[in-house]
Design a protein that fits this description.
mainly alpha; 2 helices; about 0% strand
Length: about 60
């Protein structure tokens, strides 16, 4: 059950991450400040996604 919650949260964060990366790319030519902010937020989300991957791995090893 906890593993499925982690997977759902990870998927939601991944979608938001991809949107932020796209926004950062699109703003690169018009507004450098917004591009940097979107890229920074994307990096923060990637860090959270990696933490969830680690937790998900731990739960799967416990159930095996």
């Amino acid at each position: 059950m906890a593993s499925s919650k982690i997977s759902k949260k990870k998927q939601k964060l991944k979608e938001l991450y991809l949107q932020l990366v796209e926004d950062a790319y699109n703003f690169r030519q018009t507004d450098h400040e917004l591009s940097d902010i979107a890229e920074y937020r994307a990096m923060q989300l990637l860090h959270r996604i990696n933490k969830l991957k680690f937790l998900e791995r731990d739960y799967s090893s416990l159930s095996s």
